[in-house]
Amino acid sequence: MRSSLGQAGRRLRRTRGECSPKERRLRPIGRERCDAASVRAPHQAPAMKVRCKRLELTAEERARVDRPWSEANFEMLAIDRTYVAYALATVRGTPCVRVRSDSGYLLTIPIQLFEVVDPRPSSFWEVGFDDGELELRPPLLATPFFLDDLGERVPEVVAAFEQLQLKMEAE
Length: 171
Description:
171 residues; alpha+beta; five-stranded antiparallel β-sheet; globular
């Protein structure tokens, strides 16, 4: 039988922002306080992460891809940098990953340019279809014109994406 002092102690710790031993293990490194946003639930898997290994498709890959990719987008990436995968999608049959570039744009890039360093899918992803193509993505990215508005830096869309980014990076 648990004593009410234990529950009162947990409530007191919570109001002061202190962590229980279990919460301390789940708290992200560098966080000193325990609040709902800083403690990751044990069932949450980290978001998928990919590392850019090159900036060009090979001639063989270009021949298989059914879309002329703008290699200017590839130049917005950095080799050996690790990115959070915000979505996986097929674009005209080509498997792609959506990552945020250093300049803040959400890019859809063929997955062949990346090495998967953490294959676990984000807990925010759901299955969807866009123009008959399969996607695994957060519901926010399926909002009509969201990606266009994000690229055009519409303030409320940028704010919504930054909230999503914080959640996914904290996974």
